[in-house]
């Protein structure tokens, strides 16, 4: 084979393909280990909740509520983590299933459905192809290695609740256990080993709390504006491009009021009902089917006034 037939670009393309395949194989091998690691981390922090804080409490009146809170948070975190994995984000059907009539979609003739060239599934709006999962995902936000799948339409509420309860649990545990580090709750009982044990767990708990805080804040913004991480960057790029020409297009899925946007992920309900869905472990059905979406009334490009 001559150099002209197999040049530098071909070598680079082949190298990238090999790297992509190796990364995909490695990811599939280590994904079960990542999930086991996460369950182990949940167990360690749950034990820290109970033993690291309850032990120095001298009165049963303080121990019982704390143990109840510990169990409640451990169940909540585990429940939502498991449902993130087993529920999945939702994947559109293959075009052959639509053409044969085996699968029917609730849409009208005005909605144009594309076909993905990579996985040959239908590709409605807000749907993206994941190169790691090798298939399209409804309302894809991102591929999360911690749950070994994508975060999308059907498992997004569980992902958000997993972040929320992990943040709340680590934050409360850190605040309750920190005084013991300062010697306010009988630090002398544990000795040097107890100090090292508590210091390590406090550092782990604090690091997770800070990391999840930024992630939770980010997804709270996305949730209240009804957009995904991918859509945020697409909207940002489109906004700057259109603004340079004197126009901008608003996010078509932003329904105006934050509660309406939240209902798209958590399902319809009053403020109290949405709060109950957030706090307690339960199954949640998002609004819509992942194909047809509610949109704001004004969707045309808006003229930007220049001064």
TrEMBL record:
One of its GO terms (molecular function) is protein-cysteine S-palmitoyltransferase activity. Belongs to the DHHC palmitoyltransferase family. Keywords: Acyltransferase, Membrane, Transferase, Transmembrane, Transmembrane helix. InterPro entries: Palmitoyltrfase_DHHC (IPR001594), PFA4/ZDH16/20/ERF2-like (IPR039859). It is found in: Membrane. The keyword Transferase applies. It catalyses: L-cysteinyl-[protein] + hexadecanoyl-CoA = S-hexadecanoyl-L-cysteinyl-[protein] + CoA. It is a multi-pass membrane protein. Residues 112-235 form the Palmitoyltransferase DHHC domain. The chain crosses the membrane at residues 29-54, 162-183, 195-218. Its EC number is 2.3.1.225. It holds the Pfam family DHHC. This is Palmitoyltransferase. PROSITE patterns: DHHC. It comes from Carpediemonas membranifera. One of its GO terms (cellular component) is membrane. The DHHC domain is required for palmitoyltransferase activity. The keyword Membrane applies. Its main location: membrane.
């Amino acid at each position: 084979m001559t150099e002209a037939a197999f040049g530098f670009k071909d070598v680079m393309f082949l190298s990238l393909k090999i790297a992509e395949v190796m990364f995909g194989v490695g990811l599939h091998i280590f994904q079960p280990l990542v999930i086991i690691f996460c369950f182990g981390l949940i167990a360690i922090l749950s034990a820290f909740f109970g033993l690291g804080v309850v032990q120095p409490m001298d009165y049963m009146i303080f121990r019982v509520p704390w143990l109840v809170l510990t169990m409640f948070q451990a169940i909540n975190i585990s429940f939502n983590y498991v449902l993130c994995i087993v529920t999945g984000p939702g994947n559109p059907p293959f075009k052959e299933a639509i053409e044969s009539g085996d699968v029917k979609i609730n849409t009208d003739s005005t909605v144009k459905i594309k076909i993905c060239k990579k996985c040959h599934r239908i590709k409605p709006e807000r749907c993206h192809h994941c190169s790691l999962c090798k298939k399209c995902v409804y309302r894809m936000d991102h591929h999360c290695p911690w749950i070994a799948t994508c975060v999308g339409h059907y498992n997004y509420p569980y992902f958000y609740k997993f972040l929320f309860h992990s943040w709340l649990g680590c934050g409360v545990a850190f605040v309750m256990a920190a005084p013991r580090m300062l010697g306010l709750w009988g630090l002398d009982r544990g000795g040097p080993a107890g100090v090292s044990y508590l210091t390590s767990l406090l550092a782990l708990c604090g690091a997770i709390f800070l990391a999840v805080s930024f992630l939770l804040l980010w997804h709270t913004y996305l949730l209240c504006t009804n957009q995904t991480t991918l859509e945020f960057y697409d909207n940002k790029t489109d906004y700057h491009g259109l603004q340079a020409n004197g126009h901008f297009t608003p996010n078509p899925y932003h329904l105006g009021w934050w509660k309406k946007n939240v209902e798209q992920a958590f399902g319809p309900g009053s403020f109290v009902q949405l709060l109950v869905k957030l706090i307690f472990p339960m199954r949640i059905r998002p609004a819509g089917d992942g194909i047809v979406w509610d949109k704001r009334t004004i969707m045309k490009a808006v003229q930007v006034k220049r001064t």
